[in-house]
Design goal:
By secondary structure, the protein is of the alpha/beta class. Helices cover about 40% and strands about 20% of the residues.
Length: about 250
């Protein structure tokens, strides 16, 4: 249990940093409260000048940008940021005409939400942008074979072999799930993250089906699948793949 707690502690993820560029202080304060309640680290500025000053000090994973700002407007800011950076931009503006939405997207915004907005929808859009950005920014997964606890998994041939070189049959879904664990050892991985990584975020099996795949994988690789030690369940969290994983020649 102590080892599991240490693994969980080392796997805590830093919350995504979001910059809100909004000159209306009441709206900015409401957005900051909304995002912090959702677990994000959010800051607000009221102009392009303040934004530029803050961006020189630290990085952000998402910018929520008002279209109508004093001085340089949001559309100009969007075009300028996009020419230099790939950070996701969500434009949040009172401009409701379709042409404004089209212009915003053509200038490089990743999404466009009009005021007044639904808080739950806004958070869902923020979450989706951060998720897409996260996987787009990840380095291309290694195709080198990996070993763990006497097992060897080969992403190219899609084969799993035991310590004696015997091939163990896995379904496509089981192999994909096990590969996610091997590429993210000793980290808490949620069911939703597994779905995204194995189905590219597209509509696929419900989250509970992940439990079925994990159960079948355990039956094939665990010394005692009724008391698993390699794939541990984290209550309300997901799973932790406990063994060390190394690349194999």
């Amino acid at each position: 249990m102590a080892e599991l707690m240490n693994i969980m502690a080392s796997s805590i993820v830093t919350p995504a940093r979001i910059l809100v560029v909004e000159d209306d202080r009441d709206i900015a304060a409401m957005l900051i409260d909304l995002m912090k309640e959702a677990g994000y680290a959010a800051e607000a500025v009221g102009s392009a000048v303040e934004m530029d000053r803050l961006l020189k000090k630290r990085d952000f994973q998402l910018i929520v940008l008002d279209g109508m700002l004093p001085g340089e407007d949001g559309f100009s800011i969007c075009r300028r940021i996009r020419s230099l950076d790939t950070v996701p931009i969500l434009m949040l503006t009172a401009l409701t005409k379709e042409i404004d939405r089209v212009v915003g997207l053509e200038l490089g915004a990743d999404d466009y939400v009009t005021k007044p907005f639904n808080s739950r929808e806004l958070l869902a859009r923020i979450k989706a942008l951060l998720r897409r950005s996260s996987y787009a920014m990840q380095a291309k997964p290694s195709l080198e074979p990996m070993t763990f606890a006497g097992w060897r998994i080969d992403p190219v041939t899609r084969e799993l072999t035991d310590s004696e070189g015997m091939h163990v049959s896995l379904t496509t879904a089981e192999f994909d799930v096990l590969l996610v664990f091997c590429r993210n050892p000793r980290q808490v991985v949620t069911r939703q993250e597994i779905l995204v990584r194995t189905h590219a975020g597209a509509a696929g099996p419900v989250e509970r089906s992940i439990d079925v795949h994990v159960s079948r994988i355990r039956q094939k690789i665990e010394p005692d699948y009724k008391n698993p030690t390699l794939i541990k369940t984290v209550r309300l969290g997901g799973y932790i793949f406990t063994p060390e994983v190394s690349t194999s020649p």
